[in-house]
What we know:
Blueprint: E1 2-8, H1 14-27, E2 34-36, E3 42-44, H2 47-61, E4 64-68, E5 74-75, H3 77-84, H4 88-96, E6 103-105, E7 108-112, H5 113-140
Antiparallel strand pairs: 1-4, 2-3, 5-7, 6-7
Amino acid sequence: MMKTESKTKSPGSREDRELLEKLYDVINGEERPVLLGREGAHVQFPEPVFHLLTEIVRKMHRGQSVVLLPENEELTTQAAANQLGASRPHVVKLLEEGAMPYHMVGSHRRIYLRDLLSYQKQRDRDRREAMDALNEELLEADLYDSDYTGEG
């Protein structure tokens, strides 16, 4: 899985920036890029690899740092909290409530990245469903005002 940081960094040298710009243009073009293998053989990217590489290039083009982690990466409760945008005590509470699996390393809780991402997807899905239900209630009660501007 890929995680991107919100801080921006420009790629190193001017040459690196120029190469990134060329790569960005290639991945956004009509033709799908290929690797040039030994003796000039063209090697097509498998779809998951191509998708991952294009995401990395797009994020770097926008100046974002990219961190690549395997799904079985073990995260501390603080790292999980940072990913969720929550406090560490909140994450510990979620773990103790059974919201996501964890395991102990000595006296410390560890969460696999895949479990955190699964929890995050479910949490986001639940939030969307709750917002959709609230919107539906507003529409049914005729309380939704499409002319509302937030002023006055």
